[in-house]
Amino acid sequence: VHEGHPSSSHQTLKGTSKWATSLENLLEDPEGVKRFREFLKKEFSEENVLFWLACEEFKKTQGKKQMQEKAKEIYMTFLSSKASSQVNVEGQSRLNETILETPHPLMFQKLQDQIFNLMKYDSYSRFLKSEIFLNHKKSEEQEENSPEAQTAAKRASRIYNT
């Protein structure tokens, strides 16, 4: 019986190993979002993750006035025909400006899901093979294998095994 040795499946994943498990995990990590945006910028599709993040932010918005302003901002930035960072979603034409007068937290959900799936089945898998991801992974591994990290790990294991 291995007591005091947590099995590897129970260890919390961090960094690239966590990002590689799912797009959800990647988007929960600010550093992951930063690297993913860097990658999407090179692919000229950064607006997808920016739209997704804006929608997440929008769901937390309180108060009708703020919601109207934010909804309009999201519409003008990502969904209108003149949008500077237009996202490619179906049904965006049906989202006309009248809906912006009566915003509700999930008004962009369908579009957000479309963009999420687009990222998940398209850019996310390429991101995991990208130089940005692999270099970040490499630097993490070097940090883990550095003498300082190992002494810290040994100290930690001494503390936990008492």
TrEMBL record:
Key words of the record: GTPase activation
Region (Disordered): 139-162
Example GO molecular function: G-protein alpha-subunit binding
Gene3D superfamilies: 1.10.196.10, Regulator of G-protein Signalling 4, domain 2 (1.10.167.10)
Keyword Translocase: no
GO process annotations (BP): regulation of G protein-coupled receptor signaling pathway
Any one of the GO CC terms: nucleus
Family annotation (InterPro entries): RGS (IPR016137), RGS10/12/14-like (IPR046995), RGS10_RGS (IPR037879), RGS_sf (IPR036305), RGS_subdom1/3 (IPR024066), RGS_subdomain_2 (IPR044926)
Secretion signal span: none
Short name of one Pfam family: RGS
RGS domain mapped to chain residues: 22-133
Protein name: Regulator of G protein signaling 10
Organism: Accipiter nisus
